[in-house]
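# step 3/5: fold
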Amino acid sequence: GKGFMFLGVLGCLGTLIALGLPKVPHRYQRLRLKTTFDPSPYNLVVFISSMAMDGILVINMANLLGSKTDAPQQLVGTIGLYLLVKHILFAALPLIAGFLDGRLSIPRLFNTCLLIGTLAWILLAWGHTLPGLIITFACQAIIWSYMPLMAHRRHKKKHLLAISQVGSWLDLGKALGAFTGLWLWQWLGREL
């Protein structure tokens, strides 16, 4: 209760400060819209891999939450461990890969992580949940940290357009992966 009140007070203070800022006149220009949703082979690979990797996460979390456990503390601890490992890998692996930038081929590392992250389904299907999720999280961390660089290398003249294209396909894949993962888990749960 007190935490939400604190956040509400902070939000109100921020709004009051924003309303007190001076008004700056802007000239209006006609903008030409650019399409950034080009289904190139590269963008489709990014879409499918992000959909598969986020589907893995959602299926495993739904499996844990749907399991008949007598100890909710153990369930919370397991999910907390998965999320802790994910965030540690997302913080540490891009830094390590950045230090190894001169020694590694970034496109080869990127493509290898796409393949390994998608193939992590096999480990999960065989019941090796923790190693499968760690591999998936590690691959996601490297893929998402090098996504702008790979997009820039593909379209050197229009790098911002390329980054927005890849980001759109990545976000769409994550959203559909989560939705499909939940749907697949429910469908398989009814069939078993």
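# step 4/5: annotate
The two ends are 41 Å apart (CA to CA).
# step 5/5: archive (pending)
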